[in-house]
């Protein structure tokens, strides 16, 4: 399956590490993959800026450059800067630092990520009112859940996006995964064609199906947020691996 593949899009949390713990052997596997493929690291993480994600990977012993990471927050900021206007940010205080050069007025967009404690009624109602006044809903990501520090699944920002869509009758523009444009931008970063790239992820919908819909090969790993119920969703990955390390058997 990988015979004609020249590049890999690697999801981070759930593929290379789980929360703060690297997948055993993943650092060495990554080194071997980088000898064979172009690699870009993709993430829907919206709680922290790319620089923080990069530092975390370095501290875990992974070898990469910061500009090889393509995040949902980066894509969202790029979109707003190209379109112009201001934004109301439903994000964590840390993630907001990535948007310091985006004006807060006029509110043309409501940007939603995993805001954690900032998902208060007051903040959600502000977002609701801005949207009702004409602001566009921008979902930096629309994931359902993620694997948390206690080893259990936790609610992600998708539920809050859907709640605002329901209340306002308006549909969010999804910038991160599973947006087709997100994957195509990441592929363009490599200088490759979609059919020359495979995406490896632990989310069968956002990672695998999202990539396959954009013309990439889709590889699912049984780590991170993966559950056996994922295999009952009617999505057929091109390859299913016990972990990222097993891909070495196919190259």
From TrEMBL:
Its cofactor is Mg(2+). GO terms for cellular component: cytoplasm. This is Haloacid dehalogenase-like hydrolase domain-containing protein 2. The keyword Cell membrane does not apply. Keywords: Hydrolase, Magnesium, Metal-binding. Transmembrane segments: none annotated. Belongs to the HAD-like hydrolase superfamily. Gene3D superfamilies: HAD superfamily/HAD-like. One of its GO terms (molecular function) is phosphatase activity. It comes from the Bacteria. The keyword Hydrolase applies.
């Amino acid at each position: 399956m990988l015979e004609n593949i020249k590049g890999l899009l690697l999801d981070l949390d759930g593929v290379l590490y789980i929360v703060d713990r690297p997948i055993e052997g993943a650092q060495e596997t990554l080194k071997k993959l980088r000898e064979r493929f172009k690699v870009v690291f993709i993430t829907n993480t919206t709680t922290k800026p790319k620089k923080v994600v990069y530092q975390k990977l370095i501290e875990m012993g992974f070898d990469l450059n910061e500009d090889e990471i393509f995040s949902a927050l980066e894509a969202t900021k790029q979109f707003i800067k190209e379109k112009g206007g201001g934004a109301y940010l439903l994000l964590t205080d840390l993630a907001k630092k990535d948007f310091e050069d985006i004006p807060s007025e006029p509110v043309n967009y409501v940007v939603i990520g995993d805001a954690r404690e900032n998902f208060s009624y007051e903040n959600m109602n502000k977002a609701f009112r801005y949207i009702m006044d004409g602001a566009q809903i921008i979902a930096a990501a629309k994931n359902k859940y993620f694997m948390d520090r206690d080893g259990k699944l936790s609610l992600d920002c998708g539920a809050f996006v859907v709640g605002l869509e329901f209340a306002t009758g308006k549909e969010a523009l999804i910038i991160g995964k599973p947006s087709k444009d997100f994957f195509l931008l990441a592929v363009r970063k490599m200088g490759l064609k979609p059919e020359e790239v495979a995406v490896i992820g632990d989310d069968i919908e956002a990672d695998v199906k999202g990539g396959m819909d954009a013309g990439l090969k889709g590889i699912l790993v049984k780590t991170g947020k993966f559950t056996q119920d994922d295999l009952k969703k009617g999505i057929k990955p091109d390859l299913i691996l016990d972990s990222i390390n097993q891909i070495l058997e196919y190259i």
